[in-house]
Design a protein that fits this description.
single chain; 14 strands; six-stranded parallel beta sheet; 432 residues; 16 helices
Length: 432
């Protein structure tokens, strides 16, 4: 099948490469000529395990190409995925400008029946607006479907190749059949395609992300209560997650969530609810708890080191909002580092993949190390902010002898504080 994917951001590039890998002819369209030239050479602008190899392989096999010509891409394709960004407006709503621009371009280019797929995360009712725009620009038949993505950064390629479910929002049997054909190779062992109406599909993405974020914020509130009453949140978490109705996913306490999805989608859902005169009191509190969690972590540091951190050196392990990505959008590390800089601290940082990203955000305000241990000399404290695997079992004896003060603020509850105490290292965690 010939397919166009419009937008070569995180979602578009992963989707395009994975769909091409199943034997389809895919053209990824973008306005950024320089970016496309890099992609044609197999140079990937984001870090995502397995993506570079997948892109290079399918370019070599001539199944994956890149173009700035949206008109030709639409004319040559049977299915067009819209995968452009939907950045957040000041009021929390999703900015659909790029989606609508693409819809207009598609309408002007259509030369026969097409399936138009909303892959971007968009509010309820967007498919209706896209349909209206395309109808205003063509006399040819087409169908618009909603096919939200559920990709976890750091696992996106595997998530697309082996999805736990595929949501197809469609009111057309013909379009539904074509979408099922596209996804059939990814679901050979089990049929996990869920067909529903378009509006339900649009809302499912927001509902899913907001529920996962709610689990994180709930667990962080339990962690804060544990500190007050003298309980251990790790014990509480273990007891809770043994209940199959609850499970163990997204129940880890810490310094809160970040990234491009959870914070943005929560605000967007609140905005959608407000426009429909529906009060989302639980969802409203999720972001507030998340923000507070970062503030409480900073307070732990100042309670121990004082509010004047001039002359203090603080080492940081982990900058990305989660492991296996270089994405620092809404990362807790940004909030924590900026707060400590204002208090006069000298900050030394290391992250396996996000150092270049950090340099664009902080410039020369902080110091950058070449490896994890280079941040330790003369450090008065070490902050663990992202739970990369390489930080799980470090050389604690080296940490103890290298740091000015053997003090760790473990924002991800990764270490055993009792064992570290026996080694002469103080470890302060969340909810313990």
């Amino acid at each position: 099948m010939k397919i166009a994917v419009i937008g070569t951001g995180y979602v578009g590039l992963v989707a395009g490469a994975c769909i091409a890998d199943m034997g389809n002819e895919v053209v990824c369209v973008d306005k950024n000529t320089e970016k496309l030239q890099q992609l044609e050479k197999g140079i990937i602008p984001i870090y995502e395990p397995g993506l570079e190899e997948l892109v290079k392989t399918n370019i070599e096999e001539k199944r994956l190409t890149f173009s700035t010509d949206i008109d030709k891409a639409v004319k040559d394709s049977q299915v067009c995925f819209i995968a452009v960004g939907t950045p957040q407006e000041e009021d929390g709503s999703a900015d659909l400008q790029h989606v609508f621009e693409v819809a207009e371009s598609i309408g002007k280019a259509i030369n026969g029946y097409k399936v138009i797929v909303d892959k971007s995360t968009v509010p309820v009712g967007t498919a209706e607006k896209v349909t209206k725009i395309i109808k205003e620009n063509t006399v040819h038949p087409f169908d618009v479907v909603s096919n939200p993505e559920f990709l976890k950064q750091g696992h996106a390629v595997d998530d697309f190749l082996h999805p736990d479910r595929v949501i197809i929002g469609s009111d057309s049997e013909k379009a539904t059949a074509i979408m099922q054909e596209i996804y059939a190779p990814f679901l050979r062992t089990e049929n996990r395609v869920i067909i529903m109406d378009i509006k339900s599909a649009e809302l499912t993405k927001y509902a899913s992300n907001c529920f996962l974020a709610t689990k994180i914020s709930f667990m962080n509130e339990i962690a804060n209560l544990c500190e007050k009453v003298g309980a251990d949140v790790e014990m509480v978490r273990t007891g809770m997650s043994a209940d199959l109705r609850i499970g163990n996913k997204f129940l880890f306490p810490g310094i809160g969530f970040g990234g491009s999805c959870f914070p943005k989608d929560i605000k967007a859902l609140i905005k959608i609810a407000s426009e429909n005169k529906c009060d989302m009191s639980i969802v409203k509190s999720v972001n507030e708890v998340n923000k507070k969690q970062r503030e409480l972590f900073i307070k732990k540091i100042t309670d121990k080191l004082g509010k004047n951190l001039s002359g203090k050196t603080i080492a940081v392990w982990g900058l990305a909002f989660k492991p296996k990505t270089n994405d620092m959008r809404e990362a807790p590390s940004i909030t924590v580092i900026n707060a400590l800089l204002k208090l006069g601290a000298t900050i030394k940082v290391y992250d396996p993949k996000a150092m270049d990203t950090a340099m664009t955000l902080f410039g020369n305000k902080i110091e950058y190390a070449e490896n994890a241990y280079d941040v330790l000399p003369n450090a008065d404290a070490l902050l663990l902010l992202t739970e990369w695997n390489e930080f799980r079992r470090p050389d604690f004896e080296r940490i103890k002898t290298t740091m000015e003060t053997p003090l760790i603020f473990d924002g991800r509850n990764q270490y055993n504080p009792q064992k570290l105490s026996e080694k002469g290292i103080t470890c302060i965690q969340v909810g313990r």
